[in-house]
TrEMBL record, chain A:
Compositional bias per record (Low complexity), positions renumbered to this chain: 258-268
InterPro entries on file: AAA+_ATPase, ABC_transporter-like_ATP-bd, ABC_transporter-like_CS, BCAA_Transport_ATP-bd_LivF, P-loop_NTPase
Pfam families from the UniProt entry: ABC_tran
Protein name from the UniProt record: ABC transporter ATP-binding protein
Family membership: Belongs to the ABC transporter superfamily.
Keywords: Amino-acid transport, ATP-binding, Nucleotide-binding, Transport
Database matches in SUPFAM superfamilies: P-loop containing nucleoside triphosphate hydrolases
Molecular function via GO: ATP binding; ATP hydrolysis activity; branched-chain amino acid transmembrane transporter activity
Highest taxon above the source species: Bacteria
Annotated segments matching region Disordered: 255-299
PROSITE patterns, per database record: ABC_TRANSPORTER_1, ABC_TRANSPORTER_2
Gene3D superfamilies (UniProt xref): P-loop containing nucleotide triphosphate hydrolases
Species whose genome carries this gene: Kitasatospora indigofera
Automatic annotation (TrEMBL), chain B:
Membrane topology: Multi-pass membrane protein
The name this protein goes by in its record: Branched-chain amino acid ABC transporter permease
Annotated organism of origin: Kitasatospora indigofera
Keywords linked to the UniProt accession: Amino-acid transport, Cell membrane, Membrane, Transmembrane, Transmembrane helix, Transport
Main subcellular localisation: membrane
Transport as UniProt keyword: yes
GO molecular function: transmembrane transporter activity
Alphabetized InterPro entries for the sequence: ABC_transp_permease, BCAA_transport_permease
Positions of transmembrane segments: 6-27, 34-54, 66-90, 102-122, 149-166, 195-218, 230-257, 264-285
Record Pfam families: BPD_transp_2 (PF02653)
Automatic annotation (TrEMBL), chain C:
Membrane-related topology note: Multi-pass membrane protein
Entries under PANTHER family matching the protein: ABC TRANSPORTER ATP-BINDING PROTEIN, HIGH-AFFINITY BRANCHED-CHAIN AMINO ACID TRANSPORT SYSTEM PERMEASE
Keywords: Cell membrane, Membrane, Transmembrane, Transmembrane helix
Taxonomic placement: Bacteria, Bacillati, Actinomycetota, Actinomycetes, Kitasatosporales
Protein name stated in the entry: Branched-chain amino acid ABC transporter permease
Subcellular location: Cell membrane
TM segment ranges: 29-48, 60-81, 93-112, 118-135, 193-212, 238-262, 277-301, 332-353
Entry's Gene Ontology molecular function annotations: branched-chain amino acid transmembrane transporter activity
UniProt key word Thylakoid: no
Amino acid sequence: MNAEAQGGQALSGQALSGRAESVASLLRVRDLRVVIGGRHILHGVDLDVRAHGVTALLGRNGAGKTTTVRGILGLVPRTGSVLFDGTETVRLATHALVRRGIGYAPEDRGVFAGLSVAENLRLAERPGAGEPAYALVHELFPELRQRARQPAGTLSGGQQQMVAISRTLLNGNRLIIADEPTKGLAPKVVTEVAQVLERAAEAVPVLLVEQNLAMVRRLAEHCVVLADGRTAHHGPAAELLTDAEATRRLLGVGRHQGAAGPDATGPDATDRAPTGGPSADRTAVDAPPAARPHTDREH
Amino acid sequence: MSTVVLLTLTGLGLGALYFLVASGLSLIFGLMDVLNFAHGALLSVGAYGTWWAASGHLPGAGADGPGFVLAVAFGTAAGTLAAVLLELAVIRPLYERPREQVLATVGVGLALPALLSAIWGADARPFPGPAALTGTFGLLGAQVPVNRLVLIAAALAVLAVLKLFLGRTRHGLVVRAGVEDRAMVTALGIDVRKAFTLVFAIGGAAAALGGALGGLYFGSVDPGQGTSLLIFAFVVVVMGGMGSVGGAALASVAVGLVQQFANYYTTAGLGDLAVVVLLAALLLVRPSGLTGRLA
Amino acid sequence: MTTATPEQTEVGAPPAAPAADRLRRLTRWWPAAPLLVLLTAPWSSLPLPGLLDGPLGSPGSLQLIALCLLFGALATGYDLLLGRTGLLSFGHALYFATGTYATNTVMLQAGLPFLPSALLGLLGGVALAALLGSVSLRMSGIGFSMVTLAFAQAGSILVERDPGGFTGGEEGRAAPAEQLPAALVGIEHTANLYWIALAYLVLTLAVVHRVVHSRTGRVWEGIRENERRVEVLGLRPYGFKLVAFVLAGTLAALGGIVYLLLTGGATPQTTTSDFTLSLLVMVVLGGSGTRWGPLVGGVLYTWADHRLGDLAGSGAVAGLPAVLRVPLSQPLFLLGTLFVLVVYLLPGGVVRLPGRLRAARERSRRVTERSRRVTR
């Protein structure tokens, strides 16, 4: 895969829509820009979340991943276009967009520490939008049922993440956005979270922000890479992760991790990779290989 | 002994009044980050509404018996309405601009008492009240004014209702969650602005009730009454932890008692001074008093 | 009118077009014209019906104008905190009142003449601002506002309770006329007081202008925009904020001394949180963070506060229906309402109005031109 050779081709709406017939995108973001306190955090992010499977949103620290997610949801002031299921939502308030069927598990888990587990879940119920799927949640996380009356602030990090993910599963959401769900968790819990997301993705498409490449390798079919608040790359996840050079350049992962590449070409990764070939891999023109220094903080 | 009893009940009565103002103030700040400088004016609206109705302007209302209850209800309703209007017309259009919101409440806090004094004059007006509530009763040798008990009972009732509302209803759950993390509440698909209006309505109602019954306590109404109570309500809010109703209840009792006892046993005014100095000290020692969330 | 304009013209003016350059350099001195008018006001007998009660040079009018100028200056000093550094202090009245009360008390109790007393009063204000500022600034955001409010309230309670009979409690205390310089006492010397107020205003404007364009002023601007970024640059915001706080407190204490002369006494109203809130209203009304905004707001507020009441009693208003007459009789109602409207509709205050109107006119002109071109 020669990403550099295609470097002159900017990622544009047209370039994507040309292939849109084959893969319908549930969420279509174009030229998303976010300015906070006079600082440009996002300079124009384009991304598509397919109607099935897991789409991973990758990038180095400070590339703007969390801001992108918050911008999509309207939690920060933003401009651009956010089409959810074909409807423009950039002018909608956060709660109105979410009610159209989005479950969101934020980076810091967003658990209400002073509220009990049951109350945290009850908040995610949407009156008038069908029965909440408590059976599913309790099947996936039987622990939460036992701890229903416990204040969520006293839970372990993993248990809090279970609450956060449960809140996205409670409603018949059409899209789940999970922002670094494995951050700071013990390896055993990471596996558990991965299993739950894998299972959830069978029914609902997931936009996954993730630093843990093993997790991406296991779950994601497609990936979008941000650099400096712009989309720098998008394509099949397996392709990117098998290309040690591109992985290092785009994600800043060191050589020793790049050497793990061969593992990713194992059956698990290859049978997921779509047959898009090199043409599926495009690199934005304005993201030079040597990424500019990042000073932006993610919020 | 009789002095101690009188001071205690008077301090509790004053604390009850502070609680009625501070509980709403605390919820509003906790949920919306808005320090509502117009909250004292809402108390004044309640006081004048009650005074106006009890003075025979509202049919059926009067200074005695059920007529007085109706007058208090009318005053409370007027304050609630004013609070809702304030939120919808002044606060909401400035959403996500907390500093402008605070400034706007400063303007309203200035304009409302001025309007009251434009209509009914700047001087204090004697407050009519039922004979049963204006007398005193004997307790352990002290002659305690009945209105102290009325205030304490009202504050306890408001505390109980607030606790029930926050603990048992979905709207209360949304308010408690919003105090912790407003953005996350919207990200769960809940229109948190509805909770803003609701909290303003509750806070306005409590403050206006405080105004209606404070008229009994002070024996008169004047346009500046609410504003002068506001600073002590701020003290209570900070001491109790912003957004905490239970904390506000404890802090208002403490402030009321300290003020009464210090003013009586030391130089007059030292109690007031002690309370504001306490506020400064508390803020500096424990800045989390401002961020301490709903318990 | 933003403060940056003079600098921009200096730096950005092209070397060509010397005539335009000269004109611009001349127009830079436009504040000299109103200053000249203000300087000559005491000799004028121009009647300004409605605006003023008597002719311009009459003692009553001079007294009101002097108060307007004093509060304009005071608001300008307060804006060092609010508009320039982004600090919302609810305790500015304390430093103003310290200037008034300390000077008056030293004169009354120690029997010192006015000038040494004023110096002590000023020093008292500076010391208090430095002390309480260094403590209050350990908090930020609304916590800072609350601490300053608490300190100022403590001062206000002290003054009203009148410990030891120093402050005169709710009545306040008149300044001892025999200890003041003769040229500053009596209605026939109002012009002298007026000039003192004017001098105080010019001094405040000069100090604020200078310091805002210094390195310190640029750091303040940084703090106002984003305190964290200032820290990233390796600067300690605390020290810079303290400088702003003490400087504003000093200017306020000086204003308190002028107020003592102007009104002939100390009144407890100047210690209250309402007094600080009125400063806040003045600044925001006129335009926070601008060179002339706080001055305009202070003058407007003070004038309205003093004159609207009189106007309401006049025949013109008395003839109006009650719905209009009643609110008009309360300046604070009008000011409060105006303030809310400005917060909403005119962020940036009254001084931004001409610029906004010009921009709107420009827009509409461009639209008409375009439509004309199209029809052609």
